[in-house]
Specification:
Elements lengths: L12 E3 L4 H11 L3 E6 L2 E7 H8 L10 H4 L1 E2 L4 E2 L4 H11 L3 E5 L5 E6 H5 L4 H12 L3
Parallel strand pairs: 1-2, 5-6
Antiparallel strand pairs: 2-3, 3-4, 6-7
């Protein structure tokens, strides 16, 4: 099975020059805990609810702080034509719960998460990623 068979295709992104307030409002609207961050047509980072809490709120930054100041840069990704087992092993190795999915032309086409992998109904794949992701860094 390939990642393109299980990934979520409708991916919301946010720009680096938008505020944390806008990011949090979008997270609430679409009921998610992470947004992919773009600058122009390039994927440049990911912003999670944890990033907002730890890198912004805990440090006293205001709601107008730009996404670029608190996002996680250098995001790992996978390709849509990769095998689910391989991606699950990679997610376990690098301890991430979600990965952007790119075409071979390096265009964002989706995101794959623990939930997507769990829904593929392959206990071996699900166990692989779950055990790796839940280990302490």
């Amino acid at each position: 099975m390939k990642i393109q068979d299980i990934m979520t295709r409708d991916v919301q992104t946010i720009r680096v020059d938008q505020s944390m307030r806008e990011a949090a409002a979008l997270m609430e609207k679409i009921d998610c805990g992470a947004l992919l961050v773009n600058e122009g047509d390039r994927l440049v980072g990911m912003l999670t609810d944890r990033d907002i809490a730890i890198r912004a709120v805990a440090k006293g930054k205001d709601n107008d702080t730009l996404v670029r100041e608190v996002m996680t840069p250098n995001v790992c990704y996978c390709f849509e034509d990769e095998d689910v087992q391989h991606v699950a092993e990679n997610m376990a190795d690098i301890h991430v719960r979600r990965l952007p999915v790119m075409s071979r032309e390096k265009r964002l086409v989706g995101v794959v998460s623990l939930g997507n992998i769990a829904e593929c109904h392959n206990p071996s794949v699900s166990d692989t990623v779950l055990q790796g992701v839940t280990q302490a860094h």
